[in-house]
Model the fold of this input.
Amino acid sequence: MNGAAPPESRGSGRIRGPLDFPLAGGEILDRGLPSDPAFPPPGARRHRLSPPFPTPSLTRTTTRPRPSRRSRLWADALDRLRTRIPEREFRTWIEPARWLGDEGGEARLQVPNPVFAAHLEGRYENAILEALHQAGSDAVAVLCLVRRNRKSEPPADGPEHPRASTRSEPLSPDFTFETFVTGARNRCAREAALAVSDPGAVNTPFTPLLVYGGIGVGKTHLLQSIAWRLRKGGPESRVLYTRGESFGRQVVRAVRTNQLYPFREACQRLEALVVDDLEFLAGLDRFSRSAEEFFHAVTGLAERGAPVVISATSHPRDIENLDPRIRSRLESGLVTDIGLPDRATRVRIVERKAARRAVVLPDGAAEKIADRLREGPRDLESALSRIVTLARAERASAISVELVERILEQTPLPAVRQTGLPEVIGAIATAFGVPPVRLVGRYRGHEVSLARHVGMYVAREVTGRTLSEIGRAFRRKHSTILYGINRVKRQRARDPGLDRLVERLIRRLR
Done:
């Protein structure tokens, strides 16, 4: 037939066309009119289809095309890479890459932008090649090809590229300097925070400022106080308060959407940068792209004398996987810690939080709460909330001392890690650079004597052992242990450096 109209059906008076029904084997059955009593009609003619027309079957079964060797190769390699690369990194850097094939010893991948290409070739080339070799490829190099567009190019002169923005986290109206309770163990951090957040101050020696301390001691309160004060002195959009996790997500999003250069420019336009939780940035990804952009942001702002404030749970030298350049940059400013509040500060925290809630506590109640809970402001506020809630539930006209005592008895104390005395002695020896044998020996030098007394004090704080047990570990009498503990107590009140060292040792060993 080859394109010609089919001949008329014998005796039918009609032309075959759309009602022709395909049969297996490339034949067409001429169906009769719907009114025909028989199917197929007598004398129906069959016609062979000429190529290149398809030959579908009556059951309409379809066979999926078999995947090519190239697609099977990459699929196999992806399965292998998925088990070797952390899931976050795999989704961010491997999945978006499009497989183009392997030619001339090169495994070719299409990626969104030059930054993506440079990182994929530099960080994951060996892993990709190993997976491809196991899948049957003979490629010896990875070549990333970039789909060129304006967004992926470095910014030219003029604002023709998109202006990316940085997202700031919301601030709590309760976290201000006016509500921050100052004590002996957070006074240095508060004074530095006031200095760096002074709107009129430029090139202060406190930037970058890093505040570190345990969980729930007031780091977030202090950082948000800084952000509130800075925003009063300038446009809100120029002060970025964010968490380490959020900053890392913004970097990854900028890379994947070809907005890295605009994002970097947005960071450089900031007037201040306040980042809570540095540890998350250090452990977010091993490829260090987020750390790289964080380093550029901190360096650019610090060189202009703009405020940079960061919080962490540890000193920069104790943070694992932290980029050495970031560590060096942070240590060039001021690094200060916030310790656990002492008893007097805890009492003031309870009284201040009760006053903000318009709650009247009986005499001695704040002291009882402070004596029971020694961790930080967060635990104190939680206990106060339970007291207020139970008083309302019992329809009490006023909060009584008996109610407070009942609530405190039901409050579980924080779990204390079982730290042994040998572990304490080893930590003290490392901190003071003294051999452990001298701490328990007869050596009486001033440095060793101080280290020994600090060890006695720390052992009493973190192990819960009796004075006699501590004395046996240090090979000293009961009275000597008591003297050493009291000596360290007095010196902590006079020497802020020793106070911070002891606090850090206690926090590390608990």
